[in-house]
């Protein structure tokens, strides 16, 4: 193809361009979108989710397991404080969110699940509940969900890594995907 037929050259945005397009200051709590990996198994997933939360403007809610602070510190490659909420009682925390009128969406394979592509952008405060990497969301927590979202897969695996699945759903709910 000749140079005359090609479109305009692609110019990557500079760090300054990106900074000007984002929020003007750090937040203490956006109180709109939460990632809630309440039953984590692997610390690496928490670090990835923390980075995604920063990218989409979400807060992270995690359980008070002894290893969680170190996993978050290791995974926080931004080296800036993250909006992190702590809970010693995941089910109680979910109940309190429901009482506040927050929409609770679980990432789970269920008959009633909405496909990721059909999931609407969050227009109200929303919690994304992520279950245990092996056993999913506990049955007693499923009753607290307003909706479930499923990520369609073509391959042979049954599900995605918790951090990847959570990141996809957060981007969709934030209106960035």
Describe what you observe in this structure.
The chain is an alpha/beta fold and about 180 residues long. It has a single domain (about 35-175), classed as SPOUT methyltransferase, trefoil knot domain (Alpha/beta knot). Helices cover about 30% and strands about 15% of the residues. It has helices at about 15-20, 45-55, 70-75, 90-100, 140, 160-175; strands at about 35, 60-65, 85, 105, 115, 125-130, 145-150. A 7-stranded parallel beta sheet has the order 3-2-1-6-4-7-5, with helices on both faces. Helix 2 crosses helix 3 (about 70-75). The mean pLDDT is about 85.
Write the layout of secondary structure elements.
Layout: H1 15-21, E1 33-37, H2 43-56, E2 59-63, H3 68-75, E3 84-87, H4 90-99, E4 103-107, E5 114-115, E6 126-130, H5 139-142, E7 147-150, H6 162-173
Parallel strand pairs: 1-2, 1-6, 2-3, 4-6, 4-7, 5-7
The percent of residues in helical segments reads 25-40%
Question: Helix segment count?
Answer: 6
Order of helices and strands: HEHEHEHEEEHEH
Sequence stretches where pLDDT stays below 50 over 5 or more residues: none
* Rounded Rg: 18 Å
Our estimate of the beta-strand percent is 15-25%
CATH class: Alpha Beta
- Order of strands, widest sheet: 3-2-1-6-4-7-5
Q: Specify the biggest β-sheet.
A: 7 strands, parallel
- Using DSSP, what is the number of strands? 7
How would the global form be characterised? Answer: globular
Architecture, CATH level 2? 3-Layer(aba) Sandwich
- What is the CATH superfamily? SPOUT methyltransferase, trefoil knot domain
Protein name: TrmH family RNA methyltransferase
GO molecular function, one term: RNA methyltransferase activity
Region (Disordered): 1-20
Pfam family, one: SpoU_methylase
């Amino acid at each position: 193809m000749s140079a005359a037929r090609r479109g305009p050259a692609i110019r990557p945005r500079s760090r300054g361009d990106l900074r000007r397009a984002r929020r003007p200051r750090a937040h203490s709590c956006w109180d709109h979108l939460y990632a809630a990996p309440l039953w984590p198994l692997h610390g690496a997933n928490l670090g990835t989710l923390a980075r995604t939360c920063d990218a989409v403007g979400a807060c992270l809610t995690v359980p008070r397991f002894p290893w969680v602070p170190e996993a978050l510190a290791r995974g926080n490659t931004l080296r800036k404080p993250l909006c992190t909420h702590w809970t010693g009682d995941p089910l109680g925390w979910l109940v309190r969110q429901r009482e506040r009128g927050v929409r609770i969406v679980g990432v789970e394979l269920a008959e009633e699940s909405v496909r990721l592509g059909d999931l609407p952008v969050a227009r109200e405060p929303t919690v994304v509940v992520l279950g245990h990497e092996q056993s999913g969301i506990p049955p007693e927590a499923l009753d607290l969900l307003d909706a479930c979202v499923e990520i369609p897969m073509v391959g042979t695996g049954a599900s995605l890594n918790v951090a990847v699945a959570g990141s996809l759903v957060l981007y969709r709910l934030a209106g960035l995907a």
